[in-house]
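Preliminary data (for renewal application), flavin-adenine dinucleotide complex.
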Amino acid sequence: MKIVEPSFEIQHDLDHSSILVRLEACGRVCYKSEDAITEQSAIPFVTRIAAHGHNSMLELAVVSFEVTCHPDHVLELLSCHPKFLVIDRVDNGMLVTGSIRAFRELYKLHFHNQLVNDLIFVLAAKEPYLFENIFDKDKALEKDAQVGIKKLSLQEVDALPTKLRLRHRYVSVRFTVNRAVSHELVRHRLCSFLQESQRYCRYGQDRFDNQVTFIRPVFFPEGSKEYALWVEAMELAETCYLKLLDTASPQASRTVLPNSCKTELIVYCNLAEWGHIFQQRTAPAADPSMRQIMIPLQQEMEKSFR
Ligand SMILES: Cc1cc2nc3c(=O)[nH]c(=O)nc-3n(C[C@H](O)[C@H](O)[C@H](O)COP(=O)(O)OP(=O)(O)OC[C@H]3O[C@@H](n4cnc5c(N)ncnc54)[C@H](O)[C@@H]3O)c2cc1C
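Predicted structure:
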């Protein structure tokens, strides 16, 4: 068995990648198949996963638009109850931010809505693979000539006034933590997540060095009797898991794996929600295993996005 420290990484590099590259990099965390990434792999991977209904992968990239329009158009968009878009009124119109999933599903339900049509028109022209079988330019409504739609660059989002930037700037963080911490993280409903799947990953394979990886517990100092007992429990769990794999699937065998098992997950949300998460998860009442990772992450985030 392997014992590792918990860690995190703010995914700045993905902010400068294309949407397809970003979605593939995040999606492959589920299968731990990052080594299969090549220059050509993004389109087949992303379209296949989307076709299988693994839709949360499509939440891991957001797009922001500045819409120049009459106030009636704002009401028109709001009439669709777009729960998963961030919308703010600004001079001459509105700012709209949403994930690829949010825009795809909005269009499927509200293709007759002029503003939804116009937003997807612009988005599908930039990201055609992500709207195949959903948007057909030839069957879509004519674009409204009175509405101006401009996709914002990351630099433009970063230059927004603070109140707007907090809501429209999304940041993804990749965590390597234990399954107890990951379970607490996924309670934050305004985030999107992708997580290493114990159903698909078979830790008895060479690519996992035929072993289970555990996160070193913050609670027990190495050399203590509690630490020795913890190691004994992990060894037993690993032995049982690997033995079960001889005759059972990973999803059946994982039933013996404990909370200390290592997992990787990506958490993606706007800066406002990160602020909310830090408020809860760095407080003295929070789980020490959570604080161990959240306090340094908050410090790094403040440096990066002040
Ligand atoms: C110290 C601590 C102890 C905890 N103990 C327990 C426990 O024993 N058992 C347990 O089940 N959970 C527990 N939790 C989890 C906790 O109850 C929350 O589910 C979790 O922290 C997510 O926070 P949230 O609900 O504020 O925000 P998020 O899900 O991050 O949402 C952000 C904000 O959006 C709004 N929001 C989101 N969804 C809704 C909604 N459906 N309706 C209205 N407003 C919404 C709220 O304003 C919310 O603050 C604990 C958390 C902490 C920090």
